[in-house]
Amino acid sequence: MNATVLRRRILDWVAFAFASLATAFGLFWLAWILWTTLSQGIAALSPALLTQMTPPPGSDGGLANAFYGSAVMVLLGTVIGAPIGIAAGTYLAEHGRHTRLAATVRFINDILLSAPSIVIGLFVYELVVRTSGHFSGYAGALALAMILIPIVTRTSDEALRLVPNQMREAAFALGLPGWKVTARIIYKAAASGIMTGVLLALARISGETAPLLFTALNNQFWSANPAGPMANVPVVIFQYAMSPYDNWRALAWAGALVLTAFVLTLNLLVRLAARKGSGK
Amino acid sequence: MSDLAAPTVARHAPEPAARGQVGDTIFRIATAGGAWLVLALLAGVALAMAWGGRQAFATFGFGFLTSTDWNAVDGKFGALVPIYGTLATSAIALLIAVPVSIGIALFLTDIAPRWTRGPIGMAIELLAAIPSIIYGMWGLFVFAPFMALHVEPWLIAHLGHAPLIGPLFSGPPIGIGMLSAGIVLGIMIVPFIAAVARDVFNAVPPALREAAVALGATRWEILSRVTLPYTRSAVVGAIFLGLGRALGETMAVTFVLGNAHDLSASLLLPSNSIAAAIANEFTEADTDLYRSSLIALAFLLFLVTFIVLTLAKLMLRRMDRGLGRTN
């Protein structure tokens, strides 16, 4: 009897220790990765980062063209992808809520959410780069949009389904046509949820590297025109980190710090705002 | 309830109603168009990869899957090394991520003080938000040297001559290789598995847990006899979801795996994965056959992740029904 009690106590304690250690293990890596990025990145930060172009090996420079190119492609990708994602989410949650098509799309969309992003990059390469004959910022933006669409579809579907049905019933009872109910009333009620999804998706595509490798490529010079190859932060980090040159590696760390800070800050702000909103 | 979204034909003046119907039709077409586009995206990717890889499949046939040759000069391409590297690194990743994720989920649902659950959960979710290229850089410059200096010499000394598993841990401690890549992958997929596992643990009906507590069950007994049996299929689904992520992860693996095209048993030697091979070589591929072989690799990767993620969804769907969500 006593032995049984002891055994159960020990097992219980082991479970407790195991769960706590697992959590500490997860947080440990987060801290280590952030610490590395922070310490290496701060050492490489300088005002030239924002004013100068990516340099040839051995000379000083910055990442101005890469920041600009990334901003253009991420915004363009969001502008292309967000409306499509919101439309698809609206179909899933409103018009087609109980249709077979909606069930299929929801299933496929969840698979696309986790699909390898490098394959999307190859797809856009085949679709755009090969047919147009050259790499371009537009192709990069399109690849980013394709990563963004499933995320926005999923989050707007969920946000719209959280809107209480009474609101729809009340709007219909006033004689509004279906599209006005959705556009004027349901969208307003779900606006913060939909925005949360779009911003989180924007944060996600800001750090995407694989889809840009064969679409936007890279550009060592100032490239304001998305019709040609475009510099962007993730691919610059990739190339510079893999290089043997010290000044390139330092720039890669600086870029990594700015990218991580941007993505994590956006994530934190959006999640905190969403939590505050839902807590009320 | 189900006909709520259907257009209502109002009884008042016919003109506005007709206008509303036109608006309805346009709106419906636009949203259904978005939904169809999602389907078209998946179909388009699959078809484009199959089409782009047709030359490689036609040239090498089934041998593409079993050959270890990868020689751009002779124009011979076989996918076995990248396939093996992808599977081996993903397996290592799962070995690490599964227990850790379940531990974290348990911690967040049962053990942590209530006020810490939100912040800790969010910190774990931030692991998923870090761009994968950052994992790659950290892996190459910090983690791989750490492995080479502190972990791998120990493994070689203690496990390198062990029966059966010895060959896995022999070779020089260079830090870059399948073991390091697998560990980095494991850290990357922890947040995905943990988040889903936490949600399904939270979905266990409180009555079940309360009943177990009333019987005097310890925390371990609740986990092993109530929570895990109740959520088994969903937890497996969460693991498959993580596996799907691990298989297709590109940048982190590209940095840490070393891009070698030799098949070796040792986990400490550089290898290759499908995604890393594509990322490293696609822009350098100078012949059509080379390019086609890489796209054929992408097709295989897409096919495998599709199957894994489909299984994940099917297993999670049963839980969704249990949660009362209408699919």
Would you tell me the structural class of the helices and strands of chain B?
mainly alpha
The helical percent of chain A reads over 70%
Low-pLDDT regions of chain B: 1-14
Low-confidence stretches of chain A: none
Proportion of beta-strand residues of chain B: under 5%
Mean of residue pLDDT of chain B? 86
- Oligomeric assembly: heterodimer
Shape annotation of chain B? globular
User: Helices and strands of chain A: which structural class?
Assistant: mainly alpha
Overall morphology of chain A:
globular
Tell how many strands the DSSP assignment of chain A holds: 0
As laid out across the biggest beta sheet of chain B, the strand order is: 1-2
For the CA atoms, what is the radius of gyration of chain A? 23 Å
Specify the biggest β-sheet of chain B: 2 strands, antiparallel
According to DSSP, the number of beta strands of chain B is: 2
Main beta sheet of chain A: strand number and arrangement? none
What is the count of helical runs of chain A? 11
The N- and C-terminal alpha carbons of chain B lie at a distance of: 16 Å
Distance separating the two termini of chain A: 50 Å
Helix content of chain B: over 70%
How would you describe this structure to a colleague?
The complex is a heterodimer of chains A (280) and B (327). By secondary structure, chain A is mainly alpha-helical. Chain A has 11 helices and no strands. Chain B has 327 residues and is mainly alpha-helical. In chain B, helix 5 crosses helix 7 (178-202), helix 7 (178-202) runs antiparallel to helix 10 and helix 8 (206-214) packs antiparallel against helix 9. Chain B is globular. The interface between A and B is large, with 104 and 105 residues.
What's a concise summary of this model?
The complex is a heterodimer of chains A (about 280) and B (about 325). Chain A has about 280 residues and is mainly alpha-helical.
